[in-house]
Each structure stands twice: as C-alpha cells, then as structure tokens.
Amino acid sequence: MLKSKQKSKKKSQTNQEAQAPSVSKKELAAQQKKVDRERKAMIRAFQTYGGLGAAIGLVLFFVADYKLAIAGGGGVAVLLLSYKYPRLAMWGFMIYMPFSGTITYWVGGGNAIFQLAKDGFYVPGAIALYREIKAKKLPFLIPPQLGPALNILLSVSLMTLVFVNGAQEFAPRPDGKPFAMGLLGLKVFLGYLPLIGCSYYLIRNKKEFLWLTRTHVVLALICCGLGVVQYWLLLTGRCPGTRGYSGEALFKATLDAKCLVGGSLVFSPEQSMIRLPGTFVAPWQWAWFLIANLFFTFASAFNDPSLVWQLLSFLGMALVFVNSVISGQRIALALVPVLTVILLVITGQITNLKRFVPIAVGLSILGFGAMALFPDVITERIDSFVGRWNASPPTDFIAHQAEFTSKGQDGFFGNGLGRATNSARMFGDTKLIETYYPKLLYEIGPVGVMGFLIFVTTLTYLAFKTYRSVKDKNLRGYGASYWVFILFISYNTYYYPLDVDPVAVYYWVFAGLLFKLPDLDREVAQEKLEAEELGLLDNKRSSKKKPKKK
Questions:
Q1: Alpha carbon distance 531, 351 (integer Å)
Q2: Residue 549 has what DSSP assignment?
Q3: H-helix or E-strand containing 274?
Q4: What share of the chain is helix, strand, coil (3-state, %, to 5)?
Q5: Is the N or the C terminus of the chain less surrounded, counting Cβ atoms within 10 Å?
Q6: Pairing relation of β-strands 273-275 and 266-268?
Q7: Residue 268's beta-bridge partner residues?
Q8: CA nearest to 477, candidates 300, 215, 294
C-alpha cells in the first residue's frame, strides 16, 4: 500500500512538472536579479533610515535622556520604514501591539510617546497601502456595500465635532481644548476602521492567511505563557505585588507593583484580591485579550490544515482558560467558557466528533486537573464572581450607566467627541462612563448612537453573508468564528473594549480577514480543479499504457 501511494505521488509530481509552463534560463536569471535588487534596496533602506534614527537618538541622548533617545530615534526610523514598506509595517503593528504595554512601562517608563509607538507602524503603513491600492484603481473600503452606513456615521460624527466641540472651543470660557479633544476622540472612535481594507489587501493568498492566523496563535502562546509566569512570580513572593499595603491601596492597581511584564496590577492574596495585567497596561485590557484570543485559537484549533498547528492552537486555548482563572478577571472567567460553548454550537463543531471529542476531553482534563491542583484558587475565583454579581449585577450596572448618561444629555449630538474618552483627558475634564453605548450616547448623542448601530448592523450582516458564501469547509469554519467575534463585540456594551487595545485593533483586522475569505475560497477551488484535471490526465495516460487484451 505504501509503495503504491508513493508511486502515485511521484506520478502526480511528474505530471505537474510536465504541465508546468517552461521557464527559460534568461527569465529565471531576470527573476533572480529582481529578487536580489529588492533585497539590496531593503538592506540600503534599513541602513539609511536606521542610521538616521541612530543619529537623532544620539543627539537626544546627550540633550535629554535615554528614554527620549530611544523613542525619538527609533520613532523616526520606524515611521520612514513603515511608509516605504507598508506590508511589513502592518505585520510589525500586529506583532508589536500585544507587547506595547510591557515596552511602555519597562523600557519607556510610562512615557506617552511609547504608548503611541504602535501607531508609528500603523499610520504611515496605512497611508502608503491606501495610495498603492488607489493607484491600482481598487476600492479601499471593503466591502463597498458598507459605504452608505459609513457615510451616515462619519457625517454624524463630524457634525458633533464641528457643532459641539467647535462651539465649546469658541465659548467665552472653554473647558480645556475641546476641539483637540474631539479630534482625539474621533481617532479613538473610528481611527482603526481602515484596518478592514489594510488586512484585506495585506493577505494575498491562502499561505499568507495561514501565516497570519498562526502568528496570532504564537502571540497567544507567548503572552499567555508570560501571564502564567507573572502569576507564579507573585504567588511565590519573588514579586511582592501589593502585599503589605494598607487600606484602599490593597484593592487598587498600581505601577509600583508591576511584575515581569505589563503595567499596573493588584496582588493582595490575604484580601483575595488579584487583578493581573498580563503583557498589557491595565488588568481589564488583559481580560479582553483573553476573550478575543479564545475566538482566534478556537478557529485555528478546528480549522488549520496542519495537525501540529491544531495542537498548538489547542494549547493556546488551554492557556487562555488558565489565565482567565488565575488573572482574577471576572469578565474573562465568565465569558471564556460561555463563548466556547456558543462557538461550538454556532460553528457546527459540536457535531464534528473527530475533532470535538479530543478537544472536549482535553478541556475536561484541564478543568478537573486545575480543580484538583488548585482547589482554593478555583473556589476563591468562583466565590468572588458570585459575590460581585450579587452585589452589583451587570444588568443593573449597565442600566444605571444608561440612566446617568440620558440625564446628562445636551442636545441631539451629545456633549462632544472625547468627553468620555480616558485618553483625551489631557485636553480637559472627561467623564468616566464604563459601558460602551451609554458612553457613545454621552459623546455623540442619540443620533450618533443610531448611526453607529446602523453601521455595525450593516457590517455584521455583510460579514454573515460573506462567510456563508464560502464553500471550503476549513475556511468557512474560520469565517464562522470571526463572525461570532464581530457579532459579540458589535453589540457588547459592558465596558468599552472597542475604545482600547487589543479589541479596538482585532475587531477591524478580523473583519477584513473575513471579507477576504471568498477570494481564498476561489483559490482553493481552482487548486482542486487543477488537481482533478491532472488526475484525469494521469488516468488517461495509464490506460493508454495498458496492453490490449487478445
């Protein structure tokens, strides 16, 4: 059997070589020269821009300090290289983003420039990619049917910026800098929307699609692994955390207690108070990283064509589960198991026994093993979650925020963009509203909320139609997982993940990937058709070689 299979493989390979178009030596030499030229040009660009950045950094080192030298010199080099190589910039942006909080506080000492470093990849890369797409006369907005809903949302947002923030700017006694606050608020609100088009054009074939999905699996493994090590260092006392603090300090996240990676944390085991940030700035960002990566690792665990990557993705899922327990994040502890069940049902994987049973058994072993090894930790987390729910149910919390916001309304266009955005507080006083739709209602008013609902509903509907049109089973499985993620984030109002990393990036990136699936589906169908044609040709040749019966 093995010999016959090897013979058939060799025959198909020889047939493919026979069918492949012949390339002359001159063409091969020309292709090689082109590759060499591009490689040399890239090396020269890195040397030139890197040298310029190093020179600027050296000057800043003597004029200011090493932090500003790293930020200034590195920033100039990244900006120039990102504009010259936009695709490389997009990859750098997505890889750097999960570690930006760690770099900000462990290298940059909390400097605001380091907090914006990821946009040094994104902004010039997106501009250069947009120019490239427009030069080819291709639509940058994907899908084009999203245009009317986006126009409505942009119109309402710009009216708020002009008529509300603008009016506040020219008031007799303006509160801070309202127009600058509005611009930053608009950037936070819709600044990463172009990532739909960027991720769509970044992926040119199935190989690059798998490269991106596997990259996110690796990022999940690294970040979650560091999260486990962070917990171990705090548990063993190598990092003191907030032990020994008194009063309210025992329950507040602080940068003074940071450990290994990430930013502010709380670790007061004597008070059963733990809130870990993982690799991010704040603990709640880590919670939403875990929730988001459940979708991505789940999609790869069930749909990656490689068994090795399926196993690595399953390991990523397991680490997401572990961190949702040890991090002390109640929202992750509640949503990760629930969303796993929802994904299994909606994607249809619960009926795929060959894949579902091993993963279900593995998760069960992981769950029971964790309960056996760390019964006190599991019990404490569950008690904390139940106690918090009883003390302040999420439904009551959202209702209270909505009531507070509706009473504070000032006209149809709200109180101004950025007025409830934490990152805009440098330009004036901001309100702390911890639920997303009440926050939008406060900033852009009922008209703006209606415009946003029209937009996300249109996006969700188009995403559903797109993934349902995919024929290939594996690609369709990826699309189903991404669609559930888009659906969940579009209408989620608990806290404001769409305003902050990582969900503010992942939401738009994976929407673009989902809209790319039909192109990849056609590529897979073409490959299957070519394989079938080669098989038929092989059968015809073998039948001709058979001796005729006398």
A1: 29
A2: P
A3: strand 273-275
A4: 75, 0, 20
A5: C
A6: antiparallel
A7: 273
A8: 300
Q: Give the DSSP letter of residue 305.
A: S
Structure tokens at 514: 């989902």
d(CA 475, CA 514): 9
Task: Give 15's pLDDT tier (boundaries 50, 70, 90).
Answer: very low
Amino acid of residue 26: K
**Residue found by looking up tokens 């249109």 in the block:** 458
Query: Virtual CA dihedral for 482, 488, 492, 498, nearest 10 degrees?
Result: 0
Closest CA to 175 of 464, 448, 415: 415
Q: How far is Cα 298 from Cα 300, in angstroms, rounded to an integer?
A: 6
Residues whose CB falls within 8 Å of the CB of residue 438, separated by 6 or more in sequence, listed in order: 398, 401, 402, 404, 405, 406, 493
**Distance between CA atoms of residues 118 and 121, nearest Å:** 6
Place of tokens 């994104």: 122
Of all residues in the chain, the percent with pLDDT exceeding 70 is 83
Each residue of 243-297: pLDDT tens digit?
888 888 888 888 889 899 998 999 988 887 889 999 999 899 999 999 999 999 9
Count how many Cα atoms sit within 13 Å of the Cα of residue 229 in the half-sphere of its side chain: 11
Query: How large is the C-alpha radius of gyration of the chain?
Result: 27
Q: Which of 439, 407, 409 is nearest to 423 (CA)?
A: 439
Write the pLDDT tens digit of every residue in 67-122. 777 777 878 888 888 899 999 999 999 999 999 888 888 876 666 677 778 888 99
Quick: pLDDT tens for 476-520.
Answer: 999 999 999 999 999 998 888 899 889 999 999 999 999 999 999
* Dihedral sign (CA 45, 47, 50, 54): negative
- For residue 471, give both structure tokens: 């024929």
